[in-house]
Amino acid sequence: MKRIDASNLKYNVLNDIIRRVIEEGENKIIIDGVCGQYYIGCGIAKPVEIVINGVPGNDLGAFMEGPTIIVNEDAQDGIGNTMSSGEIIIHGNAGDVLGYSMRGGSIFVKGNVGYRACIHMKAYKEDVSPTVVIGGCAGAFMGEYMAGGTLILLGLNRDKKRLTGNYLGTGMHGGAIFVRHGVDESLCSSEVLISKPDDKDMQKILTNVKKFCDLFGFDCDKIIKDEFVKITPKSKRPYGNLYIPGP
Amino acid sequence: MKWMKDVKTYTPPDFHVIRDPDRCIKCKACVEQCSFDATFYDEEEDKIWNWDAKCVGCNRCAAFCPTEAITIENRENPYRINESWGKWNVVGVKKRAAFGGAPVVSMGSDKPYIVYWDHMLINASQVTNPSIDPLREPMELKTFLGKKVDYLEIEDGKLKTVLYPQLELEIPIMFAAMSYGALNYNVIEAIGRAAVELGTYFNSGEGGLHKDHYKFEGNIIVQVASGRFGVYKEYLDVASAIEIKIGQGAKPGIGGHLPGEKVTASIAQTRMIPKGTDALSPAPHHDIYSIEDLRQLIYALKEATEYKKPIFVKIACVHNIAAIASGVAQAGADVIVLDGFKGGTGASPQVIRDNVGLPIELALASVDDRLRQEGLRGKISLVASGGIRNSMDVIKAIALGADAVYIGTATLIAIGCTMCQQCHTGKCAWGIATQDPFLSKRQNPNIATQRLVNLVNVWALEIKETLGAMGINSIESLKGNRLALRGFDLSEKEMEILGILHAGE
Ligand code: SF4
Ligand code: SF4
C-alpha cells in the first residue's frame, strides 16, 4: 500500500507519480488531498486499487482497463469515459457524462448524477457488458445513444426532485435501463419501450442492488421490493428509415 | 416483366447500358460482375438484359467484358431543359416525395463548384536561381508532424530541450481516415501494407482496428470519434498518433452512421458494438462543448498514452475555420487536420455533402494566415485533406501552408474505384466499400498494395521534379511559400484569401 499526498500537485505530476508507483508493482494506492485533479487512473491497465480522498476532477478512470477506483467524496464530469473494465465506486454525487461510451466494468454512485449519464454505453459480447448503478436521481438525456449494458437508477432520497430529466433514452438502440418507482413517460424519448422486468432482469437488478447496498450501507430488501420498470429501445436501428439510398 | 415500373415514382435512369450484339458472346461475365442487379440473363429468351434504372455507372461490367461489347453512357436529361431546376432538383423532389426519406450519398460532392487548385500555377526557376535535377541530386521530402519547440537548448554539447513526439513521414502524403466497416478487410490490409512500404501512415478511421492489422504498428494513426468505436487501451497503444475526429469535410456538423446491415460479426467485434445495430456516431462528442472541453479530451488521450504520441484534431472546413483552428491549436493539439468541402464520405445526407462547408484551398490559406498572426503556426503541424487529386494539388497545398496531406478518394481510385458514389449501399462492385465476402474477394491485397505504392511513389517523383524545377531541394522550403503560386481567373478577394498574386504579377 502506498499513500500519495496530492495537495498542490498539478494533475500531470500526480498522474505521473501514480503511473510510476503502479509500474513499481504497488497494487493499492491511497491518494489524499485530491482537489479537482483531472485524469486520475486514466489509461491504467492493471487491476490496482486506487482510493481517493477528496474530489477528483474530470475524466476519472478514462480508458482504464482493470483498476478499482474508490472515491470517498463527490466526483466530477466524465467519470469512466470510454472505460473497458474495472470498477468505480463513488460515495457521493457525480457530474455529467458519467460512463460515456463505457463498454465493460461497473460504476456505482451513491448519490445523484448530472446530464447524459451512460451516453453511448455499449456492449458487444455476452460476457462483457457494462453496469452502472445510480443511487439518487439523474439529469436529462440519460442513456442517450445507449447501445448496450445495464443502467439501474434507484432514486433514493429523491425528495421532490424529478427522478430523471427529459429525453431519457434518446437514440437508444441497445441495452436496458431499470428505474425504481417507474418513470414519467412524458420524459422518455419516443424511441424507447417501457415494460415490466422479467425474472431474469430482476435477478440482475438484485445482484447489483445488493452490491450497491453492501458498498453504501443501504437496506437491500427494502429497496428491491419496490416496483422497477424496464426501458429498452424499440429498434436496433432507430434512424433506419429516415434515409433512402441516393443519389 | 421484371422491370415494371411504379409510374408514380418514376425517375429517369442516369445511365444507359449499351451492349453491342455483334460483339457480345453471351459469356455472362457482366451478369456475374454487376452487384446492383442491373444486368441479368433471361434463360427463356437466351438474352442478357439491362435494367438501366438500377445501373450506377460503376463500369465494372464494361471492364470485365472480354469483347468490349459494353458501353455505359450517361443518359441525357429527358425532361424539357430548365436551367434553373436541372434534372437533379426535379429528381430530388420526386424521390423524397415517393420514398419519404432523405437521400444518402457517398464520395465527395459532384456539384460544379470551383476547384481552386485548378486556378493556381506553380513557379519555376530560370537563370538566376537554377533549377535542380532530382534524378541526380538529393531531394528531401521527409516531413515531421507534431508540435515544435520555439528554440533548442544545448548543454555540454547535448540537447537539453525535451522535444515533443513527432511522426516521421518519408513523403508528405498519408492515407486518410477510412474505417473498417466503410472499407473491407482486404482494402485496409492493402492500405496498411502500402503505408509500411512507403514510410508513411494510414488512418484507421473511427471504426476501430482489426486485430490482424495491429501488425502495422509504427504506421498507424487511430481515430477517436464521438461514438468511441473500438477505442480501448491497446488500440491507443498500437498507434503512432491519435486523431480526434471532430468533423468531416463531406458532412460538417453531421455524425457518422454505419447502417446495421454493414455491421457484420467481425465489424461488430472491432467496433465493440452488437452485430446488426446501427453504428451511430453523433455529430458532437458529448463531452466536448467548448475549446476547454476539447483540451480535456486531448489531454485525456495524452495522459492515457503518457505523452508519447502526437494528438491530431480533425475538423471540417466551415466558415469561421480560422478562429476554430486557432482554438484547436491553443487547446493543445499537436497536429490540426483540415478536411475540405470536397472530401469523400462513405455515407452522408446529400444536401449536407453538396451545400455545407468550405473548400480546402481557402480554409488552408486562412488558417495558415491566422496561426501565423497569432504566432502559433510554427508550433503545430497542419494537414490538408479533402479534395487532393494529384501530386500538384499536394505541391499547391504545401505552398499554401500545409505540412502534409491526407488522400482518401485517390487511394480508392488507385485500386479500382470509379466514383460511382454507391459506397453507402455496401454493394461496391469493385470490392472496396463492401463487406460482402463475394465482392470483397475482388480486392487482392497484393495487387492493391502495389498500386498504392506505385501511385504515391509516382506522386513523389512528380513532386521532386516540380521542386527541382522551382530550384528547391527540400519540401520544407516550399511550406507556406505562397510566392511559388500565381492565380488566374480569380477575383481579387479570392486571391487575397489565398494570399497569392495574379499570374503575370
Ligand atoms: S456493373 Fe455497374 S455499370 Fe455495369 S450494369 Fe452493373 S451497375 Fe451498371
Ligand atoms: S468505392 Fe466502390 S461504391 Fe464507392 S464510389 Fe468507388 S466504386 Fe463506387
UniProtKB/TrEMBL annotation, chain B:
<dbReference type="InterPro" id="IPR017900">
    <property type="entry name" value="4Fe4S_Fe_S_CS"/>
</dbReference>
<feature type="binding site">
    <location>
        <position position="24"/>
    </location>
    <ligand>
        <name>[4Fe-4S] cluster 1</name>
    </ligand>
</feature>
<keyword id="KW-0004">4Fe-4S</keyword>
<dbReference type="Pfam" id="PF01645">
    <property type="entry name" value="Glu_synthase"/>
</dbReference>
<feature type="binding site">
    <location>
        <position position="55"/>
    </location>
    <ligand>
        <name>[4Fe-4S] cluster 2</name>
    </ligand>
</feature>
<feature type="binding site">
    <location>
        <position position="65"/>
    </location>
    <ligand>
        <name>[4Fe-4S] cluster 1</name>
    </ligand>
</feature>
<keyword id="KW-0408">Iron</keyword>
<dbReference type="InterPro" id="IPR013785">
    <property type="entry name" value="Aldolase_TIM"/>
</dbReference>
<dbReference type="InterPro" id="IPR043578">
    <property type="entry name" value="GltB_archl_type"/>
</dbReference>
<dbReference type="GO" id="GO:0051539">
    <property type="term" value="F:4 iron, 4 sulfur cluster binding"/>
</dbReference>
<dbReference type="GO" id="GO:0004355">
    <property type="term" value="F:glutamate synthase (NADPH) activity"/>
</dbReference>
<dbReference type="InterPro" id="IPR017896">
    <property type="entry name" value="4Fe4S_Fe-S-bd"/>
</dbReference>
<feature type="binding site">
    <location>
        <position position="30"/>
    </location>
    <ligand>
        <name>[4Fe-4S] cluster 1</name>
    </ligand>
</feature>
<feature type="binding site">
    <location>
        <position position="27"/>
    </location>
    <ligand>
        <name>[4Fe-4S] cluster 1</name>
    </ligand>
</feature>
<dbReference type="GO" id="GO:0046872">
    <property type="term" value="F:metal ion binding"/>
</dbReference>
<keyword id="KW-0479">Metal-binding</keyword>
<feature type="domain" description="4Fe-4S ferredoxin-type">
    <location>
        <begin position="15"/>
        <end position="44"/>
    </location>
</feature>
<comment type="similarity">
    <text>Belongs to the glutamate synthase family.</text>
</comment>
<protein>
    <recommendedName>
        <fullName>glutamate synthase (NADPH)</fullName>
        <ecNumber>1.4.1.13</ecNumber>
    </recommendedName>
</protein>
<dbReference type="InterPro" id="IPR024188">
    <property type="entry name" value="GltB"/>
</dbReference>
<keyword id="KW-0560">Oxidoreductase</keyword>
<dbReference type="InterPro" id="IPR002932">
    <property type="entry name" value="Glu_synthdom"/>
</dbReference>
<keyword id="KW-0411">Iron-sulfur</keyword>
<keyword id="KW-0314">Glutamate biosynthesis</keyword>
<dbReference type="Pfam" id="PF13187">
    <property type="entry name" value="Fer4_9"/>
</dbReference>
<keyword id="KW-0028">Amino-acid biosynthesis</keyword>
<feature type="domain" description="4Fe-4S ferredoxin-type">
    <location>
        <begin position="45"/>
        <end position="75"/>
    </location>
</feature>
<dbReference type="GO" id="GO:0006537">
    <property type="term" value="P:glutamate biosynthetic process"/>
</dbReference>
<feature type="binding site">
    <location>
        <position position="58"/>
    </location>
    <ligand>
        <name>[4Fe-4S] cluster 2</name>
    </ligand>
</feature>
<feature type="binding site">
    <location>
        <position position="34"/>
    </location>
    <ligand>
        <name>[4Fe-4S] cluster 2</name>
    </ligand>
</feature>
<feature type="binding site">
    <location>
        <position position="61"/>
    </location>
    <ligand>
        <name>[4Fe-4S] cluster 2</name>
    </ligand>
</feature>
